[in-house]
Write a structure and sequence with these properties.
519 residues; alpha/beta; Rossmann fold; Nucleotidyltransferase, domain 5; eight-stranded mixed sheet; six-stranded mixed sheet; elongated
Amino acid sequence: MARRKQQISVSLRRALTDATLLGTVLGGDTWRTWRMLLIAAMGEQLTDSERVLFKQLTGGRVCEPAQRVEELVAVVGRRGGKSRAIAALSCYFAGLCDHSHVLVQGERALVLCIAPDVRQAHIVLNYCEAIFRSTPLLRQLIGHRTADTLSLTTGVDIEVRAASFRRLRGHTFVAVIADEAAYYFADESSANPDTEILNAVRPGLATTGGLLAMISSPYAKRGELFEAHRRHYGPEGDPRILVAQGTSRDFNPSLPQYVVDRALERDHAAASAEYLAQFRSDIETFISREQVETCVEAGVRERAPVKGTRYFSFTDPSGGSSDSMVTAVGHMDDSMLVIDAVREIRSPFDPESAVEEIAQLLSLYKIDKTTGDRYSGQWCVQSFAKRSVKYEHSEQNKSQLYVEMLPRLNAKTIRLLDHPRTTNQICLLERRTVRGGRDSIDHPPNAHDDLANAIAGLCGLAESMRSTYDSSLDWVGGPEPGKEDEAIQAGVIPPPRVDPRLGLNPLPRRRWDHGRGWH
């Protein structure tokens, strides 16, 4: 189906220069770059001076598009005025464009703005409402306002949502604006949230000829924003996809240069992305999804306790306001670490109730001790002690635990549960180089790693158990007398051979010898 062209009631250039419309929103010299870019995206003609700026920001495109583009991608440094520009563009499509010919009778169109989180989304909506209330002519277009929607008498709603691909299908969009698209990591139930989001909204734009705009600061060299920049930035890019890139001061000359200089001095890699609009080269994916998924036992959500098996636990605590509280239970099967249970208590929750629930889970597996970080001083120790569970502090930090997990995932010596949120959190982990040349492994902005941290903690415990028993080996390579059963659980030595005539009773044994085995 061919894309239908929207009818324009008022040109964007006129709207941005008319004080009774949007002239006060992006007025003055400091908004010159934004005005030029938005006007060019609408297919309107630029002036000679604007074309010089256009060529600079688009990597050498000689002239503006002859018609309105299908996609606008703006890679802009922080404090570059993105939110205000997004609000102005949203108000233009909602209040000053005629969409009646692409709507069926009784249908309302939608200008959708997607932001990484609810707070940021509401900032844009507040800007939009303020714009419509700024002039008597626009004020009469306001219908009513809810927490997430500004409804207009034009038959168009401006709606803001946090980044999630759910509930986006089936709508008719006249414009979709992806604010800070490089940071769409909040929806951990999806492997690639930004891709899923854009795949969900593009069909809703096809029938209206609506504009898709990705306006964001850059982040790592991955995702929809980076791919659009890689493929279409410069003169060889698709003419229907306009990609521009500029520093914070390119789009907002009022930002003091010393702010940028100080940020570069503190952390050059981070500031190059935030203020110079350069994709970061110091961040890479910690492990591929394919490697993680090969360790998942499909269809197994939890394993029942087995009598005689020694289980151990790692807990990632939380105060209950933002992060989840998670505990993971596992055991060793020879050298294989088997994950038996993962319990996540998502915020908000009462911390004491969460500890009670975790203690009940541990009791099922006959566990009277769990390990975790030093969160909230002695609170975890005391709260677990009330329930007869000893809480020990881990000697390793989060990055060190992730390093312990990596070889197990690579060697497939860990059996993960079929738990999509855990899998996605592990896959979202990033390795980055911090000051001093050290590597740090952590979750990306707006994401979480509570489940991944609990699994990594079990890997750290498994490795420390192995190291403990390795240190007790004598000159022939065996554990100390009487510690054979513990060494079996740690995966240091194999279990004894079973006599088929005696069922599960092992053959009598005296000693494990590394060269001779059980003898």
